[in-house]
Each structure stands twice: as structure tokens, then as C-alpha cells.
Specification:
Number of strands: 20
Shape: elongated
Low-confidence stretches: 509-519
Distance between the termini: 60 Å
Oligomer: single chain
CATH topology of the largest domain: Rossmann fold
Strand order of the largest sheet: 3-2-4-1-5
Bound molecules: S-adenosyl-L-homocysteine
Number of helices: 19
Helix content: 25-40%
Number of domains: 4
CATH architecture of the largest domain: 3-Layer(aba) Sandwich
Length: 519
């Protein structure tokens, strides 16, 4: 059998967005992924579903794996022909045992490649608003471990005296437990007790915490607050700049757990958006879309799409289901012939464009009047035929408005919302335990299904505020006794999250001033 390959890859400090493009590329081609405890789970999703996933970390020194076991696991898999991605937190060459693993591979004759990553000190510094070097304060930066070797090895000791003399920034890894000793050594060697220190925990994750102090008091502060690892300590004058530069804490959805209830295929975008606003998305799809309608009726309407003057798509899903059905029937975009096409908004238009159809009309606003106005601007509606492929249950305003203008409207129900048969355990647990800050409801069906789910599971819906995408969803939600605290101004998921930011702004200002007071 042909020998496989091992990629030793840095996964960055946490935020999946900090993974390199090269790392993502090699993950996409992996047949096995062997990963550390500090790797963000979302990063593993870039590996093919068929790839073997093996968690191999050194959890403290307890139930983890020994370095030999890990190295052997890589060699064994490569010898069986696997393309192995060994994912390590941060950068593999910084306190990552890259030396041991790569040397073992080289000696075993296994080909390998090293892909760097953003190391914890860089991630922590960036997300805490601290430049590691600065022309006025810090001409150098040193990465040092605060953890003394416990395996009896005889590597060189850390020369704290020399480090204290160097005027630059220190980034101390693995040092929470021994922070007091490191600080004492530095002060004994002449570093001023009032040298600023920032301790950054879970850097770049949504629950990142920063504790600031001085060499003289940081260990005591950390102890008092029970500040847990993993954290890096950044020591030096540069820490002062954080007062002006802290940006991550100012994200308005920071640390907020937001329930995303959209159908699975629509949740990815919402998840990303919540993350980029600093929040933690929790996915619990409350809706599943299923094809519906009489097969023969649907097929005959789609086969003669070209015979309509207008085809009006009122959602991305309407486009999806239309084309999925057409595909099944062996038809494609040519079936539209000379029919004019209207997309209700830019997203729907983009979905059409991806299938080779440029919408003739995209009204500025999704209200019946705007749509009718936009169509009338192109041509007189009287006597024209209009096809509206859409959900089984939908509002009748648009068809009615078109009919009032004299159009002959054919509504074609293609799909329906159903309640999912099962829910992801973790999200359900968060909901039951009341560990959420906001529930997002992007449709009336989602609101209805959420109320039903709460009733079924004995969850008190009053415990968590709801955010709705628009007035129709609000009416349904309130009709089911849900506490609506946020309503989108623009009726999109982005609009909903904008409104959520405004809602949480007060909270956030308070949280930040607490943090400043503590500082
Ligand atoms: N190779 C890694 C370091 C591994 S050693 C890297 O380049 O970052 C493990 C130590 O790294 C932890 O004890 C902690 O000091 C630091 N660390 C790793 N991830 C971190 C994070 N997200 N936030 C703060 N410190 C982190």
C-alpha cells in the first residue's frame, strides 16, 4: 500500500475565521483528522464527512494521551495510506510539540508538511486590543512558557533574569497556575512591580475574558477571580493601549447565546452573522421544508412556465423548490422561455441568478403595492397571466393585489413547513436549562412551532426574550403568548440581528463599564 501523508497544521487560537486558507485546503483533502482539545469544533466541518475524526489531546496530564501514543497514531494511519491532518491549537511550532512529532515522522520515513497557524499570543493580543510590539515601548516580544517541565527532562531552564532585563513584551503561555512565581522572578530581576499585565483567557472565542493588573498583583487577582486556563499573560507597557484599543468586548452581541431556529439549509448564514457580531449561535431548526402539492398538477404547471407572462418568486425557497422539481423532471432554465421573472428581493434574485435567470424586476420593498407597482411599470397587468410558485400556506395579499389589477393568477404550492421530527440534543438542553439570551423567530411557522415545543417540553417561554423578523411573525408569536422583545426594522435575518444589537446595547455598555472599573 502506498504511504500516506501527514500535515501538521495550526488551527489558530479558537475563532474558526483565523484558520489559514492552506489549512482549510488540506482539511478538505483529509482522510483522517487527529485533533487537539483546543481546536474549535466548526473547523472539523471542513474535513470531508467521510474522514475519520480522532480527538487526541493531552488534557492536563490526566486522561489525555501521551506524546508517544499521538505520534504512533499518526504514523500508523499514514502507513495505512491515510492523508492525515494533525490539527493543533494555535501554531504547531509554538509550545506545540512540533519538534517531537515532525522528527518522529521524518525518522519513520513518512512524508509531511507543516502549516502554520495564528499562535495564542497573537490571537490574544489582537482580540484584547494590545499591540505586541510598539516603537515607543516594546522593541521585542518573547514567547515563553510559565510551565516548568515535570517529566524530569533536562532542557534548558528559563532565564527570567535575562527576560526581565530585555525591555520588550513577554507573552507567557501555560502560566495561570505558576503566574505568581513567574512574576516574582521577573520582579526580583528588576522588572517594575507596576508593569502592566493582561491575562487573556480563551482568546478569540466568544467567551474570551481579559483580566488586567500589574506584575505585583496579577497573580492575586487571578486567584481571587478563580481565573482558569487556557490563558496567556501579556506583560509590558503595551498592555496600557488596550484602554483605547479594546474592540472585541465592544461587539454588541458579545457572549450572547442566540437560538437560530431557521431550517437547516438557511441556518449557516445566520450562524456566521451571529458569530461575526460576537455572539454564540445555537442551532435548533424549528422548521423543515418538504415538497408538497399534486405531482401531476405541479408538473404540468412547470412544464408550461414559458406560457405565463410573469413568474413571481416570493422567496429563496420558492426558487429552490421550483428548480429542484424541474431538475427532477429533466427541465432547466430554458423552460422559462420569454416569461418575465420577478424576484421579491435581492436574495431571491441572487438565487435565480445562480440558476441562470436574471430577474426582470426586483421591487424595492416587499409589500404588495411595491410589487404590483414594479410589474405595472414594465407592462399593463390587465389580461396577463401570472404564476406564483410558493409555500402551501402563505399570505394572499400579493395574488389578490395582482388580480385586482386584472391579472389571471395561478398559485402553485410547491412546499410546506413541517415541524422537525427530532431536535439537536445540545441546543434543546440549552433551551431547557434556560441558558439562552435570545430566541430568533424568522417566520410565523417558527413562532408557532417554538410555542408548541415549549409546551411539549414544559419550558417556560417567558424565560427568554424572542426576536421576530416582522409584524406578521410578531402577531403569531404574541398570539401564542411568547414574549417579543425585539422586532426587525428591515424584514430579514440581518435586520433582525441589527435590532437585537440595539436591544442588547444597554447591557453591553454596562458590561464594559464594569470591566473598566475592574481594571
Ligand atoms: N501551540 C499553541 C500553544 C499550545 S500550549 C499556540 O501556538 O497557541 C497551550 C497554551 O497555549 C495554553 O496553556 C495557553 O497558555 C495558550 N493558549 C492556547 N489557546 C489559547 C487561547 N485561545 N487563549 C489563551 N491562551 C491560549
Amino acid at each position: 500500500m502506498e504511504t500516506g501523508f501527514v500535515y501538521l497544521v495550526g488551527s489558530g487560537p479558537g475563532d474558526p475565521g483565523l484558520l489559514t486558507l492552506r489549512a482549510r485546503e488540506v482539511l478538505e483533502g483529509a482522510t483522517a483528522v487527529v485533533y487537539d482539545n483546543l481546536v474549535h469544533p466548526q473547523i472539523l466541518d471542513w474535513a470531508p464527512a467521510s474522514a475519520e475524526r480522532v480527538r487526541m489531546g493531552k488534557v492536563g496530564h490526566l486522561h489525555g494521551f501521551s506524546q508517544d501514543e499521538i505520534t504512533q497514531a499518526l504514523i500508523d494511519r499514514a502507513k495505512q495510506g491515510s492523508v492525515v491532518v494533525r490539527l493543533k491549537g494555535g501554531d504547531p511550532s509554538v509550545f506545540g510539540r512540533l519538534g517531537e512529532e515532525a522528527v518522529a515522522l521524518a525518522r519513520a520515513g513518512i512524508p509531511f508538511e507543516i502549516v502554520p497557524g495564528v499562535t495564542a499570543a497573537s490571537g490574544a493580543a489582537a482580540y484584547a486590543g494590545i499591540p505586541l510590539t510598539h516603537r515607543d515601548y516594546a522593541p521585542s516580544v518573547t514567547l515563553v512558557t510559565g510551565h516548568r517541565r515535570t517529566d524530569g527532562g533536562d532542557g534548558p531552564e528559563i532565564d527570567w533574569k535575562a527576560l526581565a532585563r530585555a525591555s520588550g513584551t513577554l507573552a507567557i503561555y501555560m502560566g495561570v497556575k505558576h503566574l505568581g512565581e513567574a512574576a516574582a522572578q521577573l520582579m526580583a530581576a528588576g522588572r517594575a512591580p507596576d508593569t502592566p499585565v493582561a491575562l487573556v483567557r480563551r482568546a478569540t472565542w466568544p467567551d474570551q475574558e481579559v483580566l488586567t493588573g500589574t506584575l505585583g498583583d496579577i497573580a492575586e487577582r487571578a486567584r481571587k477571580q478563580n481565573f482558569r486556563p487556557p490563558a496567556v499573560a501579556i506583560v509590558g507597557e503595551v498592555v496600557e493601549l488596550r484602554k483605547e484599543l479594546a474592540w472585541f468586548e465592544r461587539k454588541t452581541l458579545r457572549g450572547k447565546k442566540i437560538l437560530i431556529t431557521r431550517a437547516l439549509h438557511q441556518a449557516a448564514q445566520a450562524n456566521r452573522s451571529v458569530q461575526s457580531r460576537g455572539g454564540i449561535p445555537v442551532a435548533l431548526p424549528l422548521i423543515e421544508l418538504q415538497p408538497c402539492g399534486h405531482k401531476s398538477g405541479v408538473e404540468s404547471a412547470l412544464r408550461r412556465v414559458f406560457a405565463f407572462d410573469w413568474v413571481v418568486f416570493s422567496s429563496v425557497n420558492a426558487v429552490r423548490f421550483t428548480f429542484e422539481k424541474m431538475d427532477e423532471m429533466g427541465l432547466d432554465a430554458r423552460t422559462f422561455g420569454a416569461a418575465r421573472v420577478c424576484a421579491v428581493g435581492p436574495k431571491t434574485a441572487a438565487e435565480l441568478a445562480a440558476r441562470g435567470i436574471r430577474a426582470d424586476v426586483v421591487p424595492d420593498e416587499y409589500v404588495a403595492e411595491a410589487l404590483v407597482g414594479a410589474l405595472t411599470a414594465v407592462a399593463e397587468l390587465r389580461g396577463t397571466s401570472v404564476l406564483i410558485p410558493r409555500a402551501k400556506v402563505a399570505r394572499e395579499v400579493v395574488p389578490r393585489a395582482l388580480e385586482n389589477r386584472g391579472a389571471r393568477v395561478e398559485v402553485l404550492p410547491l412546499y410546506e413547513n413541517v415541524r422537525p421530527a427530532a431536535y439537536p440534543e445540545e441546543a434543546l438542553h440549552a433551551l431547557v436549562a434556560g441558558k439562552l439570551d435570545l430566541v430568533t423567530l424568522a417566520s410565523s411557522s417558527a413562532a408557532k412551532n417554538y410555542a408548541t415545543l415549549c409546551a411539549e417540553r414544559g419550558i417556560d417561554p417567558q424565560a427568554v426574550p424572542c426576536a421576530v423578523i416582522g409584524p406578521a411573525t410578531r402577531t403569531t408569536a404574541e398570539g401564542h403568548g411568547l414574549p417579543v422583545a425585539v422586532e426587525a426594522l428591515e424584514y430579514t435575518m440581518e435586520g433582525l440581528l441589527d435590532a437585537a444589537e440595539t436591544y442588547f446595547k444597554g447591557d453591553q455598555a454596562k458590561a464594559f463599564s464594569r470591566q473598566d472599573e475592574q481594571d
